[in-house]
Amino acid sequence: MMPPDQPVAQSVLLPRRHRPLRSALIRGLGVLLPPLLTIVILVWIWQTVKSYVLQPVTAEVGDVITWAIKDVRNPSDLTDALATEQEGVVVSHGVRYRQLENKQFVPLDVYTVALRGLGSVQPPTIGWGVYRRYVETEYMRPIIVIPVFLVVFVAVMYVLGSLVAAEVGQVVWGDVEVAITHLPMIRGVYGAAKQLTDYMFTEKPLDFKRVVAFEHPARGQWQIGFVASEGFAEIRQLAGEPVLAVLVHVNPIPVSGYVRLVPKSQIIDLHMTVDQAVHYIVSFGVVLPPQLLPAKTDVKAVGDGPHAKA
Q1: Can you list the residues of the chain whose pLDDT is less than 50?
Q2: How far apart, in Å, do the first and last CA atoms of the chain sit?
């Protein structure tokens, strides 16, 4: 006797569970990351300028001011000094001087200002140190230095930009760059830095006119990219055909990534604009241009199959 027919198990597609917490976190990151990354980049730029430009310039200016205003006297310079009721303080030509540990004398008011805000830190013991601290406290306060530095920095950048924009400035700066490119070790670093700054600060945007696809990283796996330029002549001769430099993007920023040199025969031109390709990339493939959507096929109605009821 044959066993009764068993019911055929049918796979049931269960709907995906809705995860409101995860969706909210992803949307929150999408909103928070752009301004956060902007702040991080601006802070990094400011810290770099502060460490390599502001602090060295401030130190040099402080030394110049110190040399210009310092009034440090040795005991032999104060032969007419008169002692006062305060220990270590003498009067010479109407000026009160304070004696330091190395026997030098500095004006008492300068010494008092130099000690302001030191707290438990050991005060300077030589005349130069007292005046250097005095200049920092009186003239080189951040509330004064930073605005002045920004004004001077912007003015210098404006003057340099105006000179380079002029024909004479372009010629002079071109000669300077030619001289730099002849220096053995510096030319490599300068060339890389110039390419980076030209990319960041040039007013002419990158000119991507073609959106293409090619098999990468393996056959059967397709990668979208932007044609930047023709490849190297040496590679073209070796390949026996034109070779294109294609920018392979790295999500979520479509203009970041790496360059891949691809033979022209292995490239397929996509009928989409650069803007549409950018939207496709930043949406991780969700936003597809209408002209590239697959053709709609008729779906058989329920009951049209072989097991439909008569």
Answers
A1: 1, 8-14, 298-310
A2: 31
